[in-house]
Fold each of these.
Amino acid sequence: MSGFGKWLGGGLGFVLGGPVGALLGFTLGSLMDGAHFVSSSNESRGATEGDFKISLLVLMACVMKADGKVLKSELDVVKQFLLQNFGEEGALEALGILKNLLNTDINETEVAMQIGRNLNYSAKLELLHLLLEIANADGEVHGTELNVIERISIHFNIDKNDFLSIKAPYFKHQDRYWAYKALEIEPNATTDEIKKAYRRMAMKYHPDKVANLGDEVKKTATDKFRTINEAYEDLKKQRGIV
């Protein structure tokens, strides 16, 4: 798989060790014959684009296996997601790795804790956002999928309000207060509190926070940034804020 090194971008760091490394050993070993990788120390370089994408695939497998079965329709949905976000070459390579992961026993707690220790907070928020995007690709985030993503959030030590903020847009047709949750404020918030919350959340989820993880990840982060704007516009309309 000659393009794999290109897809990984900055090489691999922390994912080559610990439970994630053990999990990927056979898969990566079979791909390394025709590719060149850069193994980097997370302590010296920080998490790389490759680390983030491998982490996404491992956690994606956890979510897809949540109900005990993986349907072809689910793989088709995931393939389309990968194509839209990582290009044709990257998507095909990622799908090959994902299929191997789906046939492998994964200790969700161990891999989530390793990933959580090695990614910064903004990167972890973006991982959760992408997992919810994938779960919602068929138009609904199912309970089993949501439970897995919430457990991953806990292993990541994500603040409960931050998780509710990420989750809120996917339930906006069921929850009249979704915009408040997206901005991490109460329904009785004042106009001034709403404006302050919007500025705070816009800074927290600005795509530049994950720019070091590659253009594709920065692009996906823009979607979360848009939901913050959508929530603010929704509340402005409800409240008559100018």
Amino acid sequence: MRQKVTVVGAGNVGATAAQRLVEKEIADVALVDILEGVPQGKSLDVMESAPVERFDAKLTGSNAYDATAGSEVVVITAGVPRKPGMSRDDLVTTNAGIVADVVRKVLPGSPDAILIVVSNPLDAMCEVARRVSGLARERVFGMAGILDSSRMRWFLAEALGVSVESTHAFVLGGHGDTMVPLPRYSTVGGVPVTELLPKERLDAIVQRTRDGGAEIVNLLKTSAWYAPSAAVVEMVDSVLRDKKKILPCAAYLQGEYGMKDVYLGVPVVLGRRGVERIIEITLAAEERAALEKSANAVRELFQILKV
């Protein structure tokens, strides 16, 4: 019997994540959305591709949370999308109410679920889910660093003309303008990128990584969904298959990196129990200052929260 995942929000990110999960046969998926017919229609469309794509995992769409009962993982993508000119901070009040409502409705049927938050502003929405659910910090975390690192990896591969499989990038901090890409810990084929690219080129890649979401918003006039959905599927896969991958995720810090009571993107060991361990790396003074700046920006969002 396959494991079960719920994806709340049948927009571009949620629907694409659900599609990837069943196509890879990672789990059966319940796709939930308040818009009548949308999760049902998208689910039916995906399932009608199953004979061609050759997968037997099932995707079921619903407007009710009854369909989510028994889920091992709940992915929360619901919320108002970021529009051109809108900062992540502007999303806080509206999306906090949406995420809180989702958590209250999904947990009764899946009390043992792990919550993976994708809704923006990501770090603040993780805190909403943690407060409302009352779950241990290991079971409530967010998708951030995998996406930011993936963007940086692509920019590096493109700049060097190499396979993306050879690139590894490291991004810490909040999921937004204050994220902290770390070229010093980023490599290509095991070689530090600082030895392969001049500082000016690396600085430009770091800035493009920070602006990655805004760049796509300006082009599409809506938020990205292909890369975010791929990132969250990697997280779900590591949890359900207990792979214990070291992945950058938005985790709740309680002393790690000298930070407390704040969600920040850090490398974690991701397994069946969720965030099983937070990996602490040595930071230079400049890197630590940037991380503290990022933490302060996240705390400012926390102060806006009403839950």
Amino acid sequence: MPAFEQARYVASIGKLSQLPEEGPPEIAFCGRSNVGKSSAINALTGRRRLAFTSKTPGRTQTINFFDIGEGVRLADLPGYGFARVPQAVRAQWDRLVGGYLAERGSLAALVIIMDARRPFTPHDVGMLDWAQPLERPLLVLLSKADKLNKRERAAALAQARGGLAARGMPGEVCLFSSVTREGVDEARTLLAGWVEAWNAEHGHKKAPGKGE
């Protein structure tokens, strides 16, 4: 199982030519700008500032890689859905993120973070259009779930699950809160299982620990 709390920074890349060498399975995280993606990554890894948050949508335009232990990488993709950036920046996002998703053989699973109060925005649906052909395990984390009451939580889950079903996309949906840590253990367990399945299929062995 990936040792999420041992996460360490590996690299940031702004061009596909800079991608780390293929090998270890990678879990890619994506989400609309300011949806809480960085906070979700920090919660999952038990770190306060592993992934940096920004109040400026579209500011981060690199893919950031982290080693999360047991020969597994986490890929933090730049946020989507930003409105106040030049067209050239959007085109760069398409080339970088689209190229990574389409070409990365090491991609073992994809996590899309959506706001539990407003899941499946047009931008989220656009991201699903990118994800659907990949046929990779998909986890939708409904962030900021602590801001919803019981009825709203049930409605958000139903809406997200229905949205995936309507598109014919298999996937898991979890309520998530970086404040209360709701969904952290569930997400870790799901991702660890998918990584194990990827390793079994591809014959990849985890990196040996120190002293081995």
Amino acid sequence: MIIVENIRKKFEDEEILKGISTTFERGKTNLIIGQSGSGKTVLLKSLIGLIKPDEGRIYYEDKAIQDMNEQEQRVLREEIGMLFQGGALFDSMNIEENVMFPLRMFTNQKRSEMLERVNEVLSRVNLENVNKKYPAEISGGMQKRVSIARAIVNKPKYLFCDEPNSGLDPKTATVIDNLILEITHEYNITTVAVTHDMNSVMEIGENIVLLKNGVLVWQGTKDDIFHTDNEDVTNFVYSSDLFKKIRDIQIKEG
């Protein structure tokens, strides 16, 4: 679980985050949504320590980042998995080396032990016999699955995803969504994802935070979306043709 208390962040004269308070739950897919410029990315970077908030506190379980010493911060970094928007695989490394990278960085395991874990997570994301291939030799969807394997290879407690479906076709995006959801439940991970993909919201939105102009204006589940009268949710979500069709179906079915 991650608890955010009154986070504020300003760049020059512009306040980007205006007192955000929320909870991201363990074992659930927590989504951060909102229009461009709403503060989604700044909030995500604040959560993982890339940006230091001007005010407020961020707790991992019962310990605030601001109170952690250097050793505690290192332990936390080891407990975090990150799925970047573009995958961020190393072109000069083959798939096996890419997935093994966090183990080489954070553990003292023997190579045989690391390789066993690499093969385990590659199998978990339904990728086999790709160890010696390079990122350029596999599809975009396969690259994203490799990135997921790398993100979970160190058995993280927390998984952060930045636009996980960016650049993927709808069918492949659904595969990635379901994989993230399955892994979250299977390993009881606190997963936090920034997304603009409304299909993802309906696929895996177990806890959704909607930001608008740096303010948290609504929080709920994918099912709550159909029953809320929150105007910000209505304006943002139902601008999508997909959601208009889904809502019409929901209304007809009673």
